[in-house]
Design a protein that fits this description.
- The protein is an alpha/beta fold.
- It is 48% helix and 14% strand.
- The strands form 3 sheets. It has a 7-stranded parallel β-sheet, sandwiched between helices. Strands 12-11-10-13-14-15 form a 6-stranded parallel β-sheet, sandwiched between helices.
- Strand 4, helix 9 and strand 5 form a beta-alpha-beta unit.
């Protein structure tokens, strides 16, 4: 069934992006398809047949009547308010609401957690609420600090609830709570709300969102994703649009011909490294000792870590491993569609499954290099995490990667780098370990100076009107 779900999801994605429909029509289509999408994207084995049956059921079978649905909706909102009141009693009033589509170990979710932690550090008398708005995917292994709480809309409205219902619920919650800021990071439900009601929300709160990169289809390079779907209509409704790299701002302004007034809303805030300082120091010592004595004819040990999804170019990773007879590869990660069985690894690849912390990689260290293969990116958190460990990085300069991986700090490759170009870089690492070590050391210096927690805290506190002023 996993293979069937993966193929069906892929066909739906291709058809959806290629349909010559307006954004509003596509949204209506997504709402109708949401029960089926929910099943395809769930790791647990829900009934695909049940989802298809629900897809073609008349609306009257889901809600007996408009009046009954309205009563249920109001009752559900009251349940949510009571649920949230317990958080306010524990850690103070809700000052910030951050919307996410789901909660896993990806870069966007880590950005949300970073902002939540920063808010709590700056205003420890308030609660930060993370609303999981689009799907029910929650990785319970992710620890959240005191005063940071989650609300999963599907837990109250059901997995079949449309984006329309959840957007309406989110609007009512925001107008009831009136937080200092509503911050959207990749939730389509929240984008729908912002585009339709942003002006109303801005009367009583700051409306902020993140977009990290321009995204494209693999074959015809058609623009897709958050920037394509939401930037033009959403930017006028925002007080501020945040990103983690400067290149996205430059590309977006040029691609969408952003007006001068809206250009001022863009702001780059580099994400901090989440690595433990002592872990990084120990890893750096191990890496340095290894590369200082490495021979030019050694068998390399290479690290790859991330989501095993199409945009991460797992196919390219497997091609590199297949052609690279002088290296062993450790691969860490998981896919959101639970189709790992479809992956076939070469004999020189060891697959270690999902991870939560970068420290989990170190059991097999030291490494000669980390290879990064994504098709598009903002400025990936994982590169900051790897760089802090003193591991040399080979990466294509997609998105904002070139702001981190330069000829001084790593081995930058063209955006559409081939397997041969990766292997050439690996040969350079093999033949010149001292060069690789020097680049890794300069990367550590860059991250320590630009991606440290105090700098991030300072940047968050400097976002205009994002935080309430404290009483003197």
């Amino acid at each position: 069934m996993n293979k069937v779900r993966a193929k069906l999801l892929r066909l739906m994605q291709i058809a959806y992006h290629r349909m010559p429909l307006s954004r509003s029509l596509k949204w209506r289509l997504r709402e109708r398809l949401s029960p089926l999408l929910e099943v395809l994207l769930q790791e647990r084995n829900k009934s695909l047949l049940r989802a298809i049956k629900l897809l073609f059921s008349p609306h009257s079978e889901v809600a007996a009547s408009t009046e009954t649905a309205a009563i249920i909706f109001e009752d559900t909102l009251n349940q949510i308010i009571k649920y949230l009141a317990t958080f306010a009693q524990q850690s103070g009033p809700i000052s910030h609401i951050i919307a996410l589509p789901f909660l896993s170990t990806g870069g966007a979710e880590m950005t949300a957690i970073n902002f939540a932690k920063a808010i709590r550090e700056l205003r420890d008398d308030c609660t930060v609420l993370i609303i999981i708005a689009d799907r029910s995917n929650i990785d319970t292994r992710l620890p959240l600090d005191q005063g940071i709480h989650t609300l999963v809309l599907n837990d109250f409205f059901g997995d079949a609830a449309s984006y329309e219902i959840k957007s309406k619920a989110l609007l009512q919650l925001l107008l009831t709570i009136k937080p200092q800021a509503f911050h959207n990071i990749n939730s389509e439900v929240a984008w729908k709300l912002i585009i339709e009601h942003g002006a109303r929300l801005r009367l009583c709160m700051q409306v902020v969102a993140n977009i990290f990169a321009l995204q494209f289809t693999q074959h015809d390079k058609k623009l897709i994703g958050y920037a394509a779907n939401f930037l033009v209509e959403g930017l006028p409704q925002l007080n501020r649009l945040l990103t983690d790299n400067r290149r996205f701002i430059d590309q977006a302004i040029e691609k969408f011909d952003i007006a001068d007034g809206d250009q001022e809303k863009f702001l780059t805030i580099y994400n901090p490294a989440r690595n433990d300082v002592l872990t990084c120091a120990k890893s750096g010592e191990v890496q340095r000792a290894y590369l200082e004595t490495a021979t030019s004819n050694r068998r390399l040990k290479i690290l790859w870590a991330g989501r095993l999804d199409a945009e991460k170019r797992v196919d390219l990773l497997l091609e590199i491993a297949d052609l690279c007879e002088f290296a062993e590869f450790d691969v860490f990660g998981q896919t959101v569609i639970n189709d790992q069985a479809a992956l076939s690894f070469a004999d020189n690849v060891s697959f270690h499954g999902p991870f939560i912390s970068p420290s989990e990689w170190l059991a097999n260290s030291p490494y000669d290099a980390f290879i990064f293969t994504s098709r598009w990116e903002g400025l990936p958190n994982i590169l900051v995490e790897v760089g802090m460990l003193g591991i040399p990085i080979i990466a294509p300069t997609v998105g904002g990667v070139g702001e981190l991986v330069t000829s001084s700090t790593g081995f930058p490759l063209p955006e559409d780098a081939s397997a041969k170009e990766y292997i050439d870089a690996l040969r350079e690492v093999r033949e010149n370990p001292s060069v690789a070590l020097n680049k890794a050391l300069q990367m550590v210096d860059l991250i320590n100076n630009r991606h440290n927690w105090p700098t991030f805290i300072q940047c968050v506190s400097a976002i205009p009107h994002y935080l309430r002023k404290t009483e003197k």
